[in-house]
Amino acid sequence: xxxxxxxxxxxxxxxxxxxxxxxxxxxxxxxxxxxxxxxxxxxxxxxxxxxxxxxxxxxxxxxxxxxxxxxxxxxxxxxxxxxxxxxxxxxxxxxxxxxxxxxxxxxxxxxxxxxxxxxxxxxxxxxxxxxxxxxxxxxxxxxxxxxxxxxxxxxxxxxxxxxxxxxxxxxxxxxxxxxxxxxxxxxxxxxxxxxxxxxxxxxxxxxxxxxxxxxxxxxxxxxxxxxxxxxxxxxxxxxxxxxxxxxxxxxxxxxxxxxxxxxxxxxxxxxxxxxxxxxxxxxxxxxxxxx
Length: 291
What we know:
- The chain is α/β, with parallel strands linked by helices.
- Helix content is 37%, strand content 18%.
- Strands 1-2-4-3-5-6-7-8 form an 8-stranded mixed sheet, sandwiched between helices.
């Protein structure tokens, strides 16, 4: 591997969000159907590096992973005055749509994990026809909080180490040690208060109970996949949510936890590759019908 250069390309794109300019960092590889990947709360797009370097998938998909503002290499906007960061449903959805517009993506597939999985459900409710398909990993309409966020941004606590410790139990025991450590390392590097701010969306503002029944899978197919070891968004949470969505595809993934794409990429691929193949074949069928 000495001297090997990976095919991932990293760049910045400027996108208007909330009436001001944001400089958004993203990485991509491949060509074909755009596939936008959303990272989990408090982390960044590095979680998707294994998918980004998948040669077979990159032949058919333009795989894109971006860092949300305040995360990874995407800074807060220039107007930020140090106020507490707090992610809302409206802001999250606007950010995703603004990013897709900035890159001029034509009906992308959007795949999100954890908070990304929750916002995918919201997109399915409010903007289904803008997407080719939506994939929610560790996604459900609501989960009862099992953690206290009040101490996540304090001067006497190392926020990154606490965040990593908090989520460490969500990784399946079969996950390779190196992948486990890398997943947690991204959490240790998160900005002050960012994980807490993301969880505001997850705990409070993003409650979709009573709304997912209106999702029209004929307008946009939706796939929900959850790891069997996830006790934050449990398989039961996802199955319950899928049962309320006519036509939703649901899968419980064995030997995986809350961070499937980064904690055990090889095992995750066994589940996501068939889903992406199905989306690609469906797109081919639609083109043939139009032709």
